[in-house]
From TrEMBL:
This is RNA-binding S4 domain protein. It comes from Methylocella tundrae. It comes from the Bacteria. GO terms for molecular function: RNA binding. Residues 5-67 form the RNA-binding S4 domain. The keyword RNA-binding applies. Keywords: RNA-binding.
């Protein structure tokens, strides 16, 4: 698997959004930043170490990409793809 992945696909694999279509809409609307830079292209690549700031309807999430996804699995699998920096809590086990 490549080290980079389309941001819309990654958001879907990480279970941030329910569909890739919603991910693309969120990105195209300017609600996603990669390393503090606003993006508007769903095909923009993300790689381990990138920090995503995502403005959702009820909250803003800050996620550090740890791995590219290989599939959309359950939440226990998805949370291995990122470290949640939103409230200073990390997804660790």
């Amino acid at each position: 698997m490549a080290e980079t992945q389309r941001v819309d696909k990654w958001l879907w694999f990480a279970r941030v959004v329910k569909t890739r279509t919603l991910a693309a809409r969120l990105i195209s609307s300017g609600h996603v930043r990669i390393n503090a830079r606003r993006i508007d292209a769903p095909a923009k690549p993300v790689a381990p170490g990138d920090v995503l700031t995502i403005a959702l309807e009820q909250q803003v999430r800050v996620l550090k990409v740890l791995h590219p996804g290989t599939r959309r699995g359950g939440y226990p699998e998805a949370r291995l793809l990122f470290e949640d920096l939103t409230g200073g809590t990390a997804a660790q086990d």
